[in-house]
Amino acid sequence: MSTPHDPQHNQPNQFPGPDGQGTPQNIPPQGYPAPQGYGAPQPGGPQQPHGQQPVYGQPQGYGPQAAHGQQAGHPGQTEPPRKKNLPLIIGAAVVALAVLGLGIAAAMGAFGTKDDDTSPTPQPSAAETSDGGQAAPNSLKGVVEAYLNALAKGDAKAALALITPLSNADLSLLTDEVLKDSLTRAPITDIQVSEPEGTDSPTVKASYKLGDEVVEDEYKFNGDDKKIFSPLTELGLHSVKKITTTVNGVDPKTDNPVVFPGSYMVASDNEYLEVEGELPILKRNSQDHATTSLTIKVSQAGVDMYRSKVIPEAEACLASKNLDPGCGMPLGDTLDDGTTLAEGSITRTQNAEAQSTLRNITPQPGNDVPTVITARDFGSFEVSATCTEPSGESGECGVIGFGKNGLSWPNASIDLNDPELKVIWEYQ
Fold first, then answer.
1. pLDDT of residue 224
2. ∠ CA 253-256-260 to the nearest 5 degrees?
3. Which of 46, 124, 242, 284 is the most exposed place for a label (fewest CB within 10 A)?
């Protein structure tokens, strides 16, 4: 006697054997899974006996009930001929399920689910590789677009990768720092690029805004080379080459560096000097070869420093009673006519106008050595002394001698490379 958990207890479609044990019927052969959720299809062979009504709602996986008046399971009763067809039926159901599953998968792949992102997975663009680096554009127009966009972003490295500069060019200013400083004053916007023209030496025309100005340019290519040939222009620094300058904060290696289109501020690296001219210099395109006149002048910091050192020394020299007051302008004790001057009796005086000239002295950079700043016009002064003539007569006298040493100011110079910034007085 089986327990309720016995696998043979109350199995459907069982026929009692001779000894009372049930022999399972309609159980799938080993290796074939039982259909899930579908009733076994009716065989397409013998029809049901006349007058038999189809049975609805019979349990799934069970065979049809016996015809009216027939008892199932009697010994010697012929088994319905569906056992031999059951593997084919199950196989067909499995195939149908597989086809249905493939259809559902295909539909999900095509349309996605409600939560899926229906857009395709982004692929690397022509100007960007899968690892985030830059790849060469596929067309000449694309090269020019990538070049100008790199300039607009301040990416000098990306821009350089798309051009072929002249072999002997000074590239020291083709850096992100220089380019980004330029963009603060003159951003590059509204880039428009045309299709290439020509075949052997194709050109590509483009336009963009540099600051508020619309600029047009034309870029050249050599044959099949997909790099722009020398789209750079030179920044002439010849007139200020005698001092150390910076361009947008970077030291150029030569006085003729090449630059991208942009805005360039030239400055002295010495706080006491400055570059004067039409600044910043705007290089509009690769064809902009205009030169800008630049000059060197003493900065306000340099003027203030110079006055703070020179004026006190000059005033001390004016106040001195000695023949040699300092300031590099000693006065001889004997005049040309033999008159002698008494030591300690010398008076040097300036009128109000001359005093104003002294207080507002402005030095200039040297022509040959701009880092030596010099001034000479400190305002005239008059000299008087106790004089003794050759005859022996003595008294107060005025000492006159146009251009004579000791009766006019010498140059007062300061070498800006001298850590002590010492004042040097000397006649030229």
1. 76
2. 90
3. 46
Instruction: Give the E-state strand segments of 17-93 in sequence order.
Output: 22-23
In words, the CATH class of domain 140-298 is alpha beta
User: Within 10 Å of residue 301's Cβ, how many Cβ atoms?
Assistant: 13
pLDDT for residue 371 = 98
SS (H, E, C) 284-335: CCCCCCCCCCEEEEECHHHHHHHHHHHHHHHHHHHHCCCCCCCCCCCCCCEC
Neighbours of 317 (CB within 10 A): 20
Please state the domain extents for the chain: 140-298, 300-426
Q: What local confidence, expressed as pLDDT, does residue 402 receive?
A: 63
User: Checking DSSP bridges between strand 163-164 and strand 228-229, what pairing results, if any?
Assistant: parallel
Contacts of 320 (CB under 8 A, 6+ apart): 326, 346, 348
Q: Which residue has the tokens 């005033």?
A: 315
Cα–Cα dist 15/353, whole Å: 141
3-state SS record for 75-91: CCCCCCCCCCCHHHHHH
Counting as low any pLDDT under 50, the low residues of the chain are 1-133
CA distance 338 to 14: 160
CA–CA separation, 273 vs 259, rounded Å? 24
Q: Which residue has the tokens 């010492």?
A: 422
Return the CA Rg of the chain: 53
